[in-house]
Design a protein that fits this description.
Blueprint lengths: L3 H11 L2 E2 H8 L3 H14 L7 E4 L34 E4 L1
Antiparallel strand pairs: 1-3, 2-3
The structure holds zinc ion.
């Protein structure tokens, strides 16, 4: 019996996914996915792996949120002030 966090590590080891895809795959709310991801980021370090975050990007001006530490999708672009943003993607490597 795998825990949710083990399942997340398992899924993200195979391919990159965003939080919405993870929530659908695991049958939990997206908000819960972010909580689990914070723990996963710490626990995979013990296996000499890393939770890689592919940052959100603005679809209008191309701004990349590469300084962002949080896992959630940002609200709006600081450059053009619009909110056409991609979701951050996650992978375990
Ligand atoms: Zn922008």
């Amino acid at each position: 019996m795998q825990t949710i966090r083990q399942k997340i590590v398992d899924l993200l080891s195979r391919h990159e996914m965003d939080a919405r895809e993870l929530s659908q795959e695991l049958g939990i709310r997206e908000r819960e996915v972010y909580t689990h991801l914070a723990h996963v980021a710490r626990s995979v370090k013990a296996e000499k792996k890393k939770l890689i975050v592919y940052p959100s990007q603005c679809l209008l001006c191309g701004y990349v949120f590469d300084e962002r530490k949080r896992f959630t999708r940002p609200g709006r672009c600081p450059q053009c002030k619009k909110s056409h943003l991609t979701r951050p993607m996650f992978q375990v490597k």
